[in-house]
Amino acid sequence: MTPLVPTPELAARARLAGLLYLVIILAGLGAELGIRARLIDLSDADATSAAILAAPGLFRLSIAADLLMALCDAGLAILLYLLFRPVAPALALAAMIFRLIQTVLIAANLMAMQTAWLLLSGDATLPAAETQGLALVFLDLHGHGYDLGLVFFGVNSLMTGVLIWRSGLFARAFGLGIGAAGVVYLIGSGLRFFAPNLSTAFSPAYGITILAETAFCLRLLFQRARGVLPEDTRA
């Protein structure tokens, strides 16, 4: 294990990673909680159809936000690999691969959203009730695909937590937080697939992921004020 040296180059790389992380957090939460939560009700196909058709720009914006998030996530995966490679090359590479798998799954999964839109906005070749029901299936499929991506992201978070802990550059509390986020992602996604009746009750636990990732994002961005990373920030 090679502890990280807080050089100006490393500081600049950390700040750029923080900036990408911030875009990911804002775009991801904006698309999921700010837009889709307002438009999609998986228990009511008719209301969901009406809401989407009444706000097509908003629905498309959620797709654009997720696409932006995926692009930034690919860049962040590479930057974090470069940042942590001196700490543990094999672990850093594995973490990058798992994060990139998550990115590909979430980006490809946007086709389910687009299919739902094409069904609702296209010329009706099926009765309205059938079209709306089929669109709702694709919207539900998108949710499951998102959670499938989070399985790989959960594994990535566990690895990243170890890298942060061993880096000697960041307080170990950040490593614990990111590792805890990984556990939440794995449990939450597992419940979505294998025990969906418990999924809603587990939802508040995702607050841990928001807190941990936002804290680490700000920790990376904070380097902007100092120009270089501090000599010793171990817990």
Description:
The chain is mainly α and 235 residues long. The chain has one domain (8-226). The protein is 82% helix and 0% strand. It contains ten helices and no strands. Helix 2 crosses helix 6 (128-167), helix 3 runs antiparallel to helix 4 and helix 7 runs antiparallel to helix 8 (196-202). The radius of gyration is 20 Å and the shape is elongated. The model is unreliable at 224-235 (pLDDT under 50).
List keywords for this structure.
elongated; mainly alpha; 82% helix; 235 residues
Short description:
The protein is mainly α and 235 residues long. The protein has helices at residues 8-39, 45-54, 56-84, 89-108, 110-121, 128-167, 172-194, 196-202, 206-221, 223-226. Helix content is 82%, strand content 0%.
How many distinct beta strands? 0
Helix and strand sequence = HHHHHHHHHH
Largest sheet: none
Uncertain regions spanning at least 5 consecutive residues: 224-235
Radius of gyration: 20 Å
Q: How many domains, as an integer? A: 1
Count every helix, treating DSSP H or I runs of 4 or more residues as helices.
10
Distance between the termini: 18 Å
In helices, the fraction of residues equals: over 70%
Given helix and strand content, the structural type is mainly alpha
Task: Characterize the overall form.
Answer: elongated
- What fraction of the residues are assigned to beta strands by DSSP? under 5%
Mean pLDDT: 91
List the helices and strands and how they pair.
Layout: H1 8-39, H2 45-54, H3 56-84, H4 89-108, H5 110-121, H6 128-167, H7 172-194, H8 196-202, H9 206-221, H10 223-226
Helix pairs in contact: 1-3, 1-9, 2-6, 3-4, 3-5, 4-6, 5-6, 6-7, 7-8, 7-9
